[in-house]
């Protein structure tokens, strides 16, 4: 059941002040990351410079109107990552990584500012939804044609000669992780075409061959099927899954064996990854070897070897894959147990704050958004195991910023437009 219309008005993007638009566009550019670049300069870099200028000339208007332990823990995490530069095994790599963390932190700050104000929530989500739909369209085109989105000048996209979609990311795992993060919000749209979006996400994740994220998405859809009390919605999600299978069958004539191999491989790889047995799959074998090497490095260096430095170590040791593809292990080996503890603690506190009854039932809007953000964060935890490197994944900073911002939302006296259906317990 959606919220009543008399409860809301719509703060349109075009009616916002120009500086508000700059911040919102900067967040959207953070979502796109390297997907729009001019040589070595990203659209994100340009928008960050403009946003920083705005903050310098109008600091009072856009300062954070709250301070809590979630922000404090995040800043401690950033500060500790900075200190790892002091003992880094490869200072240049560590400096580059900290620059990315700083950029991500600025995007997180802007997201907190925008999402904690009722006047900006809907324009923010609408803008993110717009670029999200564009990326889905690009990924679909990449599946059926040889077209590839031009990701970052000079970037060697090893998927360019395949039909594996990469969207704005240049990497299929990063693409599918973003799609998974958005799944709870897509399923809560009040529009019937949301099932079409879910269908496309299923198809993209399958053809992206991101086996870990295929398991995560399947698990979330199964959870949605179980907890949803609406029989019609249950039927629709089943039909959506069946239709996606039929479309894959049309695109891939050997669908029967392909889907069986893909699903079987996903669960075998999950088992191998959890229990550490190296199989014949080159990708998982290399990642397991990287994980084993990372654990050894951590045992020898409990404080970490410096953010970004693992890439140099693996390069010198002749590994074909230089990214650990597990953000938690990456933090453990590069910045030690302290960094990993702070990050996990921050996630736990954000989720706990979102689930807090005093916020869950303050307003229906807040209650619904909190549930969706919790689902997004829970999905994010296993999904970021698949991404190449977490420090460079700007959408992660946006999700964290949304989580913190929505737990400190203000201006409740003002009505808002809410385009998502109310979540039921």
From TrEMBL:
The keyword Transmembrane helix applies. It is a multi-pass membrane protein. It is found in: Membrane. The keyword Phosphoprotein does not apply. It comes from Salinispira pacifica. This is Teichuronic acid biosynthesis protein TuaE, putative secreted polysaccharide polymerase. Keywords: Membrane, Transmembrane, Transmembrane helix. One of its GO terms (cellular component) is membrane. It comes from the Bacteria. Coiled coil: none annotated. InterPro entries: O-antigen_ligase-rel_domated, WaaL-like. Residues 197-344 form the O-antigen ligase-related domain. The chain crosses the membrane at residues 18-36, 71-89, 95-112, 124-147, 195-223, 235-252, 336-355.
